[in-house]
Design a protein that fits this description.
Blueprint (H helix, E strand, L loop, with lengths): L7 E5 L4 H16 L4 E5 L2 H8 L11 H16 L14 H11 L3 H16 L8 H12 L3 H8 L2 H16 L7 E4 L2 E4 L4 H10 L7
């Protein structure tokens, strides 16, 4: 907590470019209002395809092409550089298991890793798509032992912790990312950030006056 105020929960998956944008904006808002942000990993594939039984957004007729345009528009709106290389696909498991492993012992380091990895994939031309690439990235940026990272990615204990986190997300009613939980209220999507800001500023969603 900061000054007795509970932290904001930020549910994310590295797979989502909107999650990247949300990670930047919620940290800014939290800093402005004296809050901490706790990063909570989940997996969109489990939530969307396995639980809700829906196709992945890019494969959804009409919505898929729109989501690509919306991604580009959102990056421009928030003033965040979008990596011009590749198609934006990021297999999330190597990255999110590495985050989970770090988060088990050092949440602050895990957050810095998450922020840097999000930026590396979505804003920079840095490969973080495979276990070997994530291990090389972790070594270059954080001087982590690549062999330890590779081992963590395939560690059953790490997989179990991530599975439990996904289960906690579902139990909490989280179905997409970014999701922000502020003072017990859940907000999905960057479109709700003005509501989050008002709640942080006033303790209420009611308009001033």
């Amino acid at each position: 907590m900061t000054d007795g105020k509970p932290p904001i929960e930020f549910w994310f998956d590295f797979l989502s470019p909107f999650g990247y944008l949300g990670s930047i904006q919620i940290e800014k808002l939290a800093a402005e209002h004296g809050r901490e942000v706790v990063w909570r990993p989940t997996l969109l594939g489990v939530m969307v395809m396995n639980v809700m039984g829906l196709p992945a957004v890019p494969a959804t007729p009409l919505k898929g092409p729109y989501s690509g345009r919306e991604r580009d528009r959102n990056f421009g709106y928030f003033g965040v550089e979008l990596n011009p290389h590749g198609d934006g696909v990021l297999p999330p498991l190597p990255a999110i298991r590495t985050f989970t492993w770090l988060n088990m012992t050092d949440p602050a380091l895990a957050k810095r890793f998450g922020q840097a990895l999000y930026r590396a994939h979505w804003s920079e031309a840095t490969d973080v798509t495979t276990p070997e690439a994530v291990a090389a990235f972790a070594k270059a940026r954080f001087d982590l032992d690549p062999d330890a990272v590779i081992a963590a990615i395939d560690d059953p204990a790490v997989k179990d912790v991530l599975k439990a986190s996904v289960g906690a997300a579902l139990e909490a009613g989280v179905f997409g990312v970014p999701t922000f939980v502020v003072d017990g209220q859940r907000f999905w999507g960057n479109e709700r950030l003005p509501m989050v800001e008002r709640l942080l500023a006033t303790g209420s969603l009611a308009p001033a006056g």
